[in-house]
Amino acid sequence: MTDLDQAAVLQTRVSRRRASRFQINGYFFFILPGVAFVLALTLFPALYGVYISLTNLNLGYVGSSFVGLDNYVRFFTWNDLGLVARNTLTFVATSVILQVVIGLAVAILLDQRLIGHRLMRSITILPWVLPSVVVGLVFAQIFGGSRLGIANYLLSLVGIGQMSWFADPALAMAILIGVCTWRGIPFAVIVLLGGLQTLPRDVYEAAAIDGATRWQRFRYITLPMLRPIILICLIMGTGGALNSLDIPLALTGGGPGNATELIAISLYKQSFLQLDISYGATIGTVMLVANLVLIVLYLSVLKPRRRAERG
């Protein structure tokens, strides 16, 4: 290769690098307004909430002052912290696991393209379309403790006496988990169904020719290839359940007593009932840290597999 040819090749490489940099900068230019808008609605309120948590701001008083970590000391020495943390952990873990498991089963069923699968897809997303507060109020009426409650009316038809559904702590938590799971399943179905439809069919055909059963194809092909999608469902579901307020507040309000009180309900009560904005911001900051820790844990589960695949 002559010097002229080498110079032409070098010039071509430089031109390609400049073009790729220009293309990347163009992408950043187009997404910059969206990124700025999201940061303005998320990052600034989060940082401002951290600042408020370091003060004694109360809507019942005129001024406020800096108190440092006093609100955090108050939170971690809170008498009901253990109960609320246990309720939140039970609610989040159970509802998220049920959403992913049931959502995966429904997604696999809808992916079979059976008769009426288009209609079933439309019906599946209905719970997600309904407003959360409406869902909570409707189920509160269904499980009402009087004769007007739909569940008690159905029980009376088979000769069973009326029940006080929300008087029993375990039953109230079970109903709350069931309703929030029913509300969250459609999102998991949509995400997992989209993931299933992107899986290569030739892999399944080759496995079937080799004699693999349906369970073996599901265990060794579907689950490993859907692993990133499942983790996305776990991250989104965990964040939604941890920050869930509308359905728990409309359905149980944290009762009976504090048996179903979640961390989000405590934040609401402190901020808008007690008007203690600084303490509510403290609870919100703790929830933010918990969300970030859980996201890092989920991503750490995904990272080793990616390294293995690259190696």
Topology:
Elements: H1 3-53, H2 70-76, H3 81-110, H4 117-124, H5 126-129, H6 132-142, H7 150-157, H8 169-196, H9 201-209, H10 214-242, H11 246-251, H12 263-273, H13 277-310
Subcellular location: Cell membrane
Membrane topology: Multi-pass membrane protein
Main location: membrane
The ordered string of helix (H) and strand (E) elements is HHHHHHHHHHHHH
Task: Give the C-level CATH assignment of the largest domain.
Answer: Mainly Alpha
Distance between the termini: 36 Å
CATH architecture of the largest domain: Orthogonal Bundle
The average pLDDT value, as a whole number, equals 84
GO biological process, one term: transmembrane transport
Pfam family, one: BPD_transp_1
Domain ABC transmembrane type-1: 85-298
Transmembrane segments: 26-51, 88-110, 122-150, 170-193, 224-242, 277-301
Brief account:
The protein has two domains: 50 residues; 227 residues, MetI-like (MetI-like fold, Orthogonal Bundle), CATH 1.10.3720. It has 13 helices and no strands.
Describe the structure.
- The chain is built from 13 helices and no strands.
- With 311 residues, the chain is mainly α.
- The protein has helices spanning 3-53, 70-76, 81-110, 117-124, 126-129, 132-142, 150-157, 169-196, 201-209, 214-242, 246-251, 263-273, 277-310.
List its salient traits.
311 residues; mainly alpha; MetI-like fold; 2 domains; 0% strand; globular; disordered C terminus; transport; membrane
